[in-house]
Design goal:
The complex is a heterotetramer of chains A (340), B (327), C (523) and D (599).
Chain A (H helix, E strand, L loop, with lengths): L3 E12 L2 E13 L4 E6 L5 H9 L6 E10 L2 E2 L5 H7 L4 E4 L3 H4 L6 H12 L4 H14 L5 H6 L7 H13 L5 E5 L7 H18 L2 E6 L2 H7 L2 E6 L2 E7 H5 L7 H9 L39 H5 L5 E4 L2 E3 L6 H17 L1
Parallel strand pairs in A: 3-8, 3-9, 6-7, 7-8
Antiparallel strand pairs in A: 1-2, 1-4, 4-5, 9-10, 10-12, 11-12
Chain B lengths: L1 H27 L5 H5 L3 H5 L1 H15 L5 H13 L5 E2 L4 E2 H36 L4 H15 L2 H15 L17 H40 L1 H8 L4 H38 L5 H10 L3 H29 L7
Chain C lengths: L9 E13 L11 E13 L3 E5 L6 H8 L7 E6 L10 H8 L1 H24 L2 H29 L9 H43 L5 H42 L3 H7 L6 E2 L5 H7 L3 E4 L13 H11 L8 H13 L16 H14 L4 E5 L7 H18 L2 E6 L2 H7 L2 E6 L2 E7 H6 L4 H9 L39 H5 L5 E4 L2 E3 L12
Parallel strand pairs in C: 3-8, 3-9, 6-7, 7-8
Antiparallel strand pairs in C: 1-2, 1-4, 4-5, 9-10, 10-12, 11-12
Classes of the chains: A alpha/beta (340), B mainly alpha (327), C alpha/beta (523), D alpha+beta (599).
Chain lengths: 340, 327, 523, 599
């Protein structure tokens, strides 16, 4: 029984030019104590799907259809009152920009205390005490001073730690980390990643980790969902995704080949995915990835494949999930053309 | 902070002197001889000799016989020592003359300041939160019209409506003539007379400030930390009134003072329409009677107000925004 | 390492480069603080190589890239450019230096005196006392040396002579000849392009079946003019070579004197970019180009792609204004960079991120540069687009024989793309080596830490990241001694006190550390 | 081959090339060129309803003001005591239908007219004061009427005189001789006086004796046949056809041509001249020759039967019963219609009426004022046109001045920076710390006093300009600074663009848009300031009008209450102008950066 489960979620945005289907039938689930990594390019709807969980979509966004099951109840139907009780308490978030995500005019202490005072019946003193504990938990040097400081007096890494402290204040069941390290320097990113892992071990929090950096995913996630154009195109354990495996979605495959790895020899040409992500307002009719897919057939362009389980724990949204087969097919096609 | 204040203060003094020289030069270029006002004009016909002498004495007493730089220095010295010279029109030292007007003006403007913010802040917040709602649109258009209408037009309109058609307020003045109220009665009468000018000056300021508050609020609501606050599970009220508004306050605070200063100047019109015995009115009458000492003092007062206003603005800004450190 | 003998031709030589940005003073009379973006950097960039520059955000790698292109006025140090011979530009600073040759040497003598004294004092001290003294000594040495170089680079061994007057005159002659030649060539270039434009117009007319006699005449006149100019230029060239031979003769005379030969070694045909005037630098910018990180903000939203690319062409007299051939050229460049040419009239906001970056690349490469700084050129792009752009850059490098300075924070990209890699930390290059060497056995603790901190897509070392503790210190008040000592697990007193020298620990492998790592990191 | 031809051809070339690639490329190209940022701005603006509304309103006002004031030029010194504070409306010539075809006698007052029909019923129309509205009892039958500035007389069939309207200055108390008299032949109401002439040829008058200078010589009594008035004096026609002026002041009126004496059959007086009709039908005019009063039209000369005079015009009935008017034709009072067998006319002030033998009553001349008149009897509408032009011109020039200063200072300190920047910004701060309104007032009061009208006006412009540039300067500076930080400017620099190009191609465009918006909004605020100054009497002063100083005289309660037209119309005009300009400015800002209309 998954702790948090999205079932065929559709989240749309109304814009002047039309309805943007940011999240277009997404389903994934986070099990207790595990980390689900969501990877995808900008505009793949990974953040939106996460924000839909907390129903924190800005102005013109709305959940069109689908279910978000958390501890068995559907958050899409929950009242605002219930949502208040869930946000920051049962499900909490860490955002990308530590620089702007903290309120510049309040001290760290006040912003931390707020969480306790909203979700737990505690006195200010008690709240401050717990805030201090949290700062210690996230390994901030001399926390007592930091409590009294304003965000702008802290470095990016420190702010992100404060954000984490704030997020974990009420021991949430689920922690949504939305590109938490993208804005940080590499060594600092490593610190934060490690910290998150450690804390996860300690309180058995489930993490929904969103990033576009495959490396980070590899470090953090137990399971991975690859998103493209508002859909999950592949979902499997991290070993399946990054390891040797007969099945994969062409997009995932492309990503893997396109990024240079430390062991990629110099001079060897990278296999780039041609073209660019389609504009959210005119998505292709069939498989969203078909226009950029080297394996694409007329079928791909015509009808849209569904996400289905190819092997246990491994879902793919593609007509030709088997690497070997599709490469062979393409070879044959090439030869056929040569023959002509 | 202290360092900053000192630095700023020195700068203020510098500006003050520059402006004072300017003002002095301007007033000195006034045609007509103020000494004439001091001398009994009958003498001219009856006893020209004595008239001339009297005139000379007057000139000397006003220090008009000395070269301009010396006059300036003298005047400055006096001004700084609190002696703003002698009002020819009231035949009393300026310092005695300006007391009441100053009080009246400050009273009027302070009240309108309070009223304006009492009205605009809630309105601004609501229309910012309900962005592009019908309400917001209405507020938008209303505010544009509001800040476009000239003060005196509003004044005439309000007089027509509230003093002539529905006679609930007095047309002008700052006290009912022929009455010698005391204590509360007097205050009541005072407020009763202030009502209409107050109404007008408030109404005129609404539009501009409202737009400003709204803009500031919208900017604040766009920030990432608002999303964070929501994600913490804070109630929408808290998010808006504590987190967003506290940030919107920063830009708002900074305009309060500058705007306050400007309405000081702007209240000239209102005062003259409602014959409100304030600085504006005084300066006008002083100008009409070429009472140089008086309006010179007035001008300097305005300058000081402006300078202090700017200083207050900086301080307020630094208080409102922890990121700003005055040094 | 200033003059390590190498078969590869040096394109750019940076020595003791400093770029300090003044921090806005907060108090009156308070001491002026600086952001030490680049703090004493020395490296060579060889022709045809790709030099990778890695480091965390705020380590000053972008700054370095821009200082090389003189987009900032560098605070200290030399940036010598060897892409052109100095007399092909005849920059005014040469004249200045030559004129002040005697005065310069007098000054030099003083500095050297001071330096020698300090050195003597330094030698006298014992180990740990030295540490504190080192900075002062080094400063003196550097001052003396840089002044010496300013002159020696131009006149070489002659600086050793007692009487500089005749030499000075001779060199001034040479300079003036070169300057005159340069002027002529520029003038000729202008005539050339307008001639080409005319030719283009005539052809266009011919396509339309029209033939204008007057134009043809004009063309003939221009050709005549050109050949005339060529004659003059040839004359000027011979004059220049005459003076040259004179100088060589003189040089021959003194050759063998050991001081002369010693100085002679410092003679340098490079152009000192930092000393150039705006106009002079402007001409060089054709050779030195920059590709930006952010494809959105680096394109003027008010200009069409055509205009954006054409701008550089016009500025560097590739074509005359509204010459039809320019359009063809631009379209060709666009196609080379993977943009379809019909987009020429589009505005940047009509393109996707990847295409915008291609526009940026097209803009830079249209002017046929020799050296390109790629400042995080792919970091802002989506994963799937990154590889497209990287490939493009690689291809173009092959085609145009470019030299890249590839700035990025992404180790795997930099390893893939570059021949050598320089690692920066807090304004200093801490390690510089061939990329395999660097990854196989880093010598600097920071490099090591960096490698361990990078999340990789390889399953076998996931969850093995060993984060580097502590925060990056502020570049305004960097730690004394070795800037890394605050976070370094091997740090000792030496590190806290003295700045380590940037030494060649292994052939072609430079490192600045007191405790060079001997063990290998990645097997 | 000229430059732009070249450009065209190169464009053609590209287009042809685009044809070459694929067919749809061409419209693609069009669509793309549509998307240039400038076009987008324009589109944003045009699609913004509010802004366009503002634009239209402003253009309307602007057009009306400038074209209107060109068509109807205003004589700033033109005043008319007889036309003060007339409310808007055109009912001065609206004759009651009952009277229209049954008129017996008609008399023209300053802003109204009185008539009596053949059944002796009284009528009056036009702008009537309250007192005038109290008409005498209707049961009497009247035979003759006369109207003055603001009172009227009527003669009953019993030969009794009744008076109504203004009753002050003794106009009410009719002398007993007149009360007793039974043989009253003519009644004449004038400026605060009333006259009667009896059959026996005697003249009596009452009312304000100082209103006109009158002395009736004894020997004249008993010889008077007819009496005519203007605003300053009166003349009589004796039974033996001589003309006598009832005052011995040496005005041009006094030089009555000798040769006509004894042959005069009718006389008339207006406020410039006196005219007499002699038995041979000749018309002789003397006095001052304004409005071509002396040039008697052919149609009248030699055929004149009787004559009557308005304020600046005469009307003659010819022997063959037609009517001819000449003189001042400002309101068409001298362009008489084609009429037949007219028996009597009355011209007064700015109207003329004629009655023909079957009692048809026709009137022509001043119908009324669109926006009424002010305390000097000046046409408010006309002044609003001229005033509007003045206000806008001043505002515009002031804005131009301030923009120039602001852009230069802001630009210099933004682009060069360093100590220069510091200096200029300090200077700007100082100017900013000057109290705007008071200083403006003081300056215009002090400096203005010694200047000619034109000088004063131009000074106002300068003052406004000099005091209102700082904000713009700061804005421009900020813009330039931010523009210089733009990545694409660095890119251009790295590309080796010439500095000149850099500034004009990459930096200025960012500034210009902002400047335009700011200028628009500044224009609005300059209008406001100018009118405030003028309103206080420290800006443009009488007589030359601006919307501001037209309201200056409206500062007392009776005007606000009873003469609403004197403040309502200028207020509306000014407010509309400012609002519309602000709307435009806002629209522009939104158009330039669409994010701002989120705000």
């Amino acid at each position: 029984m998954a702790l948090l489960e999205l079932r065929d979620l559709h989240t749309f945005f109304t814009t002047k030019k039309g309805i943007v289907k940011a999240v277009n039938g997404v389903s994934y689930s986070v099990d207790a104590g595990r980390t689900l990594g969501i990877v995808g390019e900008s505009g793949s709807g990974k953040s939106v799907s996460a924000m839909s969980i907390l129903r924190l979509l800005d102005g013109n966004g709305y959940i069109d259809s689908g279910e978000i099951l958390f501890e068995g109840r559907d958050l899409t139907k929950a009242t605002n009152e219930e949502m208040y009780k869930i946000r920051g308490n049962k499900i909490s978030v860490i955002f990308q920009e530590p620089m702007t995500s903290l309120n510049p005019v309040f001290t760290v202490e006040r912003q931390l205390n707020e969480v306790f005072l909203t979700h737990q019946k505690v006195s200010r003193k008690e709240a401050s005490r717990r805030s201090l504990e949290m700062l210690q938990a996230v390994k901030i040097p001399n926390p007592t001073n930091v409590l009294k400081q304003y965000p702008h007096q802290l470095s990016g890494g420190m702010r992100q730690r404060v954000m984490i402290a704030m997020a974990l204040a009420c021991q949430p069941r689920v922690l949504i980390a939305d590109e938490p390290t993208t804005a940080l320097a590499v060594t600092i990113q490593a610190q934060i990643l490690k910290l998150m892992n450690d804390l996860k071990e300690q309180n058995g929090t489930s993490i929904l980790f969103i990033t576009h950096d495959l490396g980070v995913i590899n470090e953090m996630a137990d399971d991975v969902a690859v998103m493209y154009c508002g859909q999950v195109v592949e979902m499997a354990s991290v070993e399946t995704i990054f390891g040797e495996n007969p099945y994969s979605h062409p997009y995932t495959e492309g990503l893997m080949n396109s990024i240079p790895r430390l062991n990629t020899p110099t001079g060897v040409r990278l296999e780039a995915i041609p073209g660019a992500v389609p504009h959210p307002l005119d998505l292709p009719k069939g498989c969203k990835f078909a226009p950029r897919c080297k394996y694409a057939t007329s079928r791909c362009l015509a009808e849209e494949p569904a996400l289905y389980e190819i092997e246990d724990g491994h879902q793919i949204r593609c007509f030709y999930p088997c690497k070997a087969d599709r490469t062979r097919d393409i070879e044959q096609m090439k030869e056929a053309q040569h023959a002509k | 902070m202290a360092k900053y204040l000192i630095k700023r203060f020195l700068y203020m003094i510098f500006v003050f002197f520059i402006v004072s020289i300017l003002m002095f030069a301007i007033t000195k270029s006034v045609p007509g001889d103020p000494a004439l006002k001091m001398v009994n004009q009958q003498l001219a016909s009856t006893d020209p000799a004595r008239y001339q002498i009297a005139l000379e004495e007057a000139r000397q007493s006003l220090g008009l016989d000395q070269p301009l730089p010396i006059q300036y220095v003298k005047w400055m010295a006096n001004t700084l020592s609190g002696n703003f010279g002698f009002s020819l029109q009231y035949r009393r030292p300026v310092i005695e003359v300006v007391g009441t007007p100053m009080f009246n003006t400050v009273a009027l403007n302070l009240c309108s300041l309070i009223l304006v913010f009492a009205i605009t802040i809630p309105l601004g917040i609501i229309s910012a939160v309900k962005k592009r709602s019908a309400f917001d649109q209405a507020v938008q258009v209303g505010s544009i019209i509001g800040y476009s209408l000239p003060t005196f037009v509003i004044a005439l309109l309000f007089i027509y409506l509230f003093a002539l058609k529905i006679q609930i307020f007095p047309i002008s003045g700052s006290a009912t003539p022929g009455t010698d109220y005391t204590g509360l009665q007097r205050v009541g009468d005072y407020l009763y007379h202030m009502a209409l000018p107050l109404l007008v000056s408030t109404f005129c300021s609404l539009g501009g400030i409202l737009r400003y508050v709204r803009a500031a609020m919208i900017d604040a609501l766009r920030e990432d930390y608002i999303r964070t606050a929501r994600a913490k599970g804070l109630r929408e009220k808290v998010v808006i009134y504590s987190h967003a508004f506290r940030n919107a306050l920063i830009p708002i605070v900074t305009i309060i003072t500058s705007w306050f200063v400007s309405i000081f100047g702007g209240s000239v019109v209102i005062e003259s329409i409602f014959l409100w015995n304030g600085l504006g009115n005084t300066i006008l009458t002083a100008l009409r009677n070429l009472d140089s000492a008086l309006y010179l003092a007035m001008m300097m007062f305005y300058v000081i107000i402006t300078l202090i206003g700017n200083l207050l603005m900086d301080i307020a800004y630094c208080i409102a925004d922890p990121r700003v450190k005055l040094q | 390492m200033q003059n390590n003998q190498t078969e590869k031709k040096v394109l750019l030589r940076i020595s003791h480069l400093k770029q300090w940005f003044p921090v806005k003073k907060t108090t009156i009379g308070g001491e002026q603080l600086y952001v030490r973006a680049n703090d004493d950097i020395s490296l060579d960039i060889y022709e045809g190589e790709t030099l990778g520059l890695v480091g965390e955000s705020g380590c000053g790698k972008s700054t370095l890239g821009r200082v090389l292109l003189q987009l900032y006025h560098q605070t200290e140090g030399k940036t010598m450019y060897y892409g052109r011979s100095i007399d092909s530009l005849a920059p005014s600073y040469v004249e200045r230096t030559l004129k002040g040759l005697e005065r310069g040497r007098a000054k030099l003598r003083e500095l050297e005196a001071r330096r020698d004294q300090l050195v003597r004092e330094y030698e006298a001290l014992d180990e740990n006392a030295r540490l504190s003294k080192k900075a002062e000594k080094d400063k003196a040495v550097k001052e003396a040396h840089s002044l010496f170089l300013d002159m020696a680079q131009l006149v070489g061994g002659f600086l050793a002579l007692d009487d500089l007057k005749p030499v000075k005159e001779l060199f001034l002659q040479e300079y003036r000849a070169a300057a005159a030649l340069h002027k002529m060539k520029d003038a000729r270039a202008l005539v050339q392009i307008s001639r080409n434009a005319l030719e283009g117009r005539i052809e266009a007319a011919r396509e339309k079946g029209k033939n204008s006699a007057s134009q043809a005449a004009k063309l003939r006149k221009m050709d005549a003019d050109l050949s005339a100019r060529d004659g003059k230029i040839a004359a000027a060239e011979s004059e220049l070579s005459r003076i040259r031979s004179e100088i060589d003769a003189l040089r021959h005379k003194y050759a063998g004197q050991e001081k002369f030969d010693e100085y002679e070694r410092y003679r340098d045909t490079g152009i000192d970019l930092a000393k150039l005037r705006y106009k002079e630098m402007r001409q060089l910018r054709k050779d030195l180009q920059l590709i930006f990180q952010d494809p959105y903000s680096s394109l003027n939203p008010r200009m069409t792609v055509g205009q954006i690319i054409g701008e550089g062409l016009l500025a560097h007299n590739f074509f005359e204004k509204n010459d039809d051939r320019m359009m063809d050229y631009i379209m060709k460049t666009m196609e080379d960079c993977g943009l379809s040419s019909y987009m020429i009239h589009r505005y940047p906001h009509q393109f996707s991120g990847g295409q915008r970056q291609r526009i940026g690349i097209a803009r830079s490469l249209a002017v046929k540069p020799k050296f390109v700084v790629c400042d995080e050129a792919v970091s802002a792009l989506d994963v799937s687009i990154q590889s497209q752009v990287i490939n493009l850059l690689q291809d173009l490098k092959e085609k145009e024989h470019l030299t890249y300075l590839f700035i990025t924070h992404d180790l795997s990209v930099v390893k893939y793309i570059s021949d050598r890699i320089a690692v920066m930390y807090l304004g200093n290059v801490v390690e510089l080596a061939r990329s395999e060497d660097l990854f196989n056995h880093p010598l600097h603790p920071y490099t090591e830490a960096l490698l361990l901190a990078i999340p990789t897509t390889d399953l076998d070392h996931r969850k093995q990241i060993v984060p580097l503790e502590g925060d990056i210190p502020s570049p305004i008040k960097p730690p004394k001694g070795c800037k890394f000592h605050t976070r370094c697990k091997y740090a000792t007193d030496a590190c806290r006190e003295a700045v380590p020298d940037f030494i060649e620990a292994e052939p072609g492998h430079f490192v600045a550390c007191h405790h060079i790592l001997d063990h290998k990191v990645i097997e | 081959m000229s430059k732009n031809e070249k450009r065209k051809s190169s464009l053609l070339l590209t287009i042809r090339r685009l044809f070459g690639i694929r067919e749809k490329e061409t419209d693609l190209l069009k669509e793309e060129q549509m998307q240039s940022p400038f076009r987008t701005m324009v589109r944003n603006f045009v699609t913004n309803k509010v802004a366009m509304f503002g634009m239209i309103v402003f253009l309307l006002i602007f057009g009306t003001v400038f074209i209107g004031s060109a068509i109807y030029p205003l004589d700033v010194n033109q005043q008319d005591t007889t036309q003060q504070n007339i409310s808007p409306g055109f009912n001065m010539l609206s004759i009651p239908s009952a009277l229209k075809d049954n008129a017996q006698d008609v008399a023209v007052g300053s802003t109204f007219a009185v008539g009596v029909d053949r059944d002796g019923k009284l009528y009056q129309w036009g702008k009537l004061t309250e007192k005038l509205q109290k008409m005498p009892d209707a049961d009497k039958t009247y035979v003759q009427v006369s109207a003055g500035l603001n009172h009227a007389l009527a003669l009953t069939d019993e030969g009794k005189v009744v008076t109504w309207g203004n009753d002050r200055l003794g106009l009410a108390n009719i002398p007993f001789e007149v009360k007793d008299a039974t043989d009253i032949k003519q009644i004449a109401a004038g400026y605060q006086v009333s006259f009667v002439v009896t059959e026996s040829g005697d003249v009596y008058y009452w009312g304000n004796p100082n209103a006109l200078t009158i002395s009736i010589p004894e020997e004249l009594q008993g010889t008077v046949d007819k009496l005519v008035l203007n605003l300053t004096t009166a003349f009589v026609l004796t039974k033996d056809g001589r003309v006598v002026m009832l005052s011995n002041s040496a005005t041009p009126f006094a030089n009555i041509p000798e040769e006509i004496q004894g042959t005069v059959v009718d006389i008339a007086a207006n406020d410039r001249a006196v005219a007499a009709v002699t038995s041979d039908g000749q018309v002789h005019v003397w006095g001052t020759n304004d409005y071509g009063l002396f040039e008697v039209p052919e149609a009248a000369q030699g055929k004149a039967a009787s004559i009557s005079g308005g304020r600046f015009h005469f009307t003659v009935i010819t022997q063959d019963g037609t009517v001819v008017s000449w003189g001042n034709d400002l309101y068409g009072q001298s362009s008489a219609p084609e009429l037949q067998n007219v028996v009597s006319t009355d011209s007064g002030y700015f109207q003329s009426y004629a009655i023909d033998e079957d009692g048809h009553l026709t009137g022509w001349g001043l119908k009324g004022y669109l926006f009424g008149t002010d305390q000097y009897g000046r046409d408010v509408a006309l002044r609003m046109l001229a005033g509007g032009r003045m206000t806008m011109t001043i505002g515009a020039i002031a804005v131009i001045i301030s923009t120039i200063i602001g852009v230069i200072i802001g630009g210099i300190s933004g682009y060069y920076g360093g100590w220069l920047d510091n200096l200029l910004m300090r200077f700007t701060e100082i100017v900013m710390s000057l109290p705007f309104m008071p200083l403006a007032i003081v300056l215009s009061a002090i400096v203005g006093n010694r200047l000619s009208e034109v000088g004063r006006i131009s000074m106002i412009m300068v003052i406004l300009g000099l005091l209102s540039w700082p904000s713009l300067a700061r804005l421009v500076r900020a813009q330039i600074l931010s523009a210089r930080e733009q990545e694409y400017v660095t890119a251009a620099k790295a590309m080796g663009i010439r500095e000149f190009t850099l500034i004009f191609r990459h930096i200025l465009p960012n500034v210009i848009t902002v400047v335009i918006v700011n200028t628009t909004l500044a224009f609005a605020s300059c209008l406001l300031t100018e009118s405030s100054l003028s309103f206080l009497g420290f800006g443009v002063v009488e007589p030359s009008p601006t919307w501001g100083n037209m309201l200056n005289s409206a500062q007392n309660s009776d005007v606000i209450a009873d003469m609403w037209w004197r403040w309502v119309f200028p207020s509306i005009a000014l407010s509309l102008a400012v609002v519309s300009i602000n709307l435009i400015g806002d629209g522009m800002r939104d158009a330039i950066d669409p994010k701002s209309n989120e705000r």
